[in-house]
Amino acid sequence: MTTVRAQDQEDGVRLLTLDRPPANAIDQTLLADLAAALDDAGADDAVRAVVLTGAGRFFSGGLDLAAAAGDQALAGMVLAPYRDTHLRLLTFPKPTIAMVNGHAIAGGLIVVLACDYRVGLDGDYRIGLNEVAIGASFPRAAFETVRLRLTHGQASELLLGADLYAASEAVRLGVVAELLPADAFEATVLRRAARLGAFPREAYAHTKAALAAEAVERIESETAEEAVRGAAVWMTPESVAAREAQREKLGKRTPKG
């Protein structure tokens, strides 16, 4: 059963929904399913644009700390599968729009930022990049995505502050272009996606590739040794202890909807 549902809308818009309850947390299966869904959408000439959202109250809560088989498994997840899926988003030749319907945290927020255009629901949820607080290093793909989308000041606040913010801060932080009320949210996002998808596709793809070229080049130039050194940050005693505390905290919560 796939963790990414695909549904075709009007005007060549394909809606992809992350669906891995309760938090649409990222594991290797979700990464593989998202990559496959993007490949399918890219190969289908009838698809002009892709909208990415999450099921339930989460867009995505980030890496699945609870389900991973130990910290070594977590460290491994920041290597090839994570890198390849995010490169697919950054280099996807058609418009991609993040429809941020709920909590977008850590790796979940990176997925949001990897999309070309981002619109948020004006609601009660959290966004943030709290990796530093839980002892996680930023994979090159994540760091370059942040640097591509945000100003230096916004990136520094999110990355080094490692806080979780109310959704009302998302525009100030550069995460979304705007926040929309629930009664207009989905229809407006789909309409924006259709507008972008109606542009001549070669012109859009060429311009998008040029905008992301330097970030993509830096991601692709990372050596295996550099990736391993970054992943090793996960395994320091302080990092392991911080994640253990986070797992315990998550374990005490009762997931909702």
CATH homology group of the domain at 4-182 = 2-enoyl-CoA Hydratase, Chain A, domain 1
Strand content: 15-25%
The percentage helix is 40-55%
**Elements, N to C (H/E):** EEHEEHHEEHEEHHEEHHHH
CATH topology (level 3) name of the domain at 4-182: 2-enoyl-CoA Hydratase, Chain A, domain 1
Biggest β-sheet: count, sense, barrel?
6 strands, mixed
Low-confidence stretches: none
Q: What best-fitting shape do the alpha-carbon axes yield?
A: globular
Task: Using the 3D structure, state the CATH architecture of the domain at 4-182.
Answer: Alpha-Beta Complex
Q: In DSSP terms, counting alpha (H) and pi (I) runs of 4 or more, how many helices?
A: 10
Q: How large is the radius of gyration?
A: 17 Å
- Order of strands across the main sheet: 1-2-3-5-7-10
Number of strands: 10
Q: What's the pLDDT, averaged over the residues? A: 91
User: What is the CATH class designation of the domain at 4-182?
Assistant: Alpha Beta
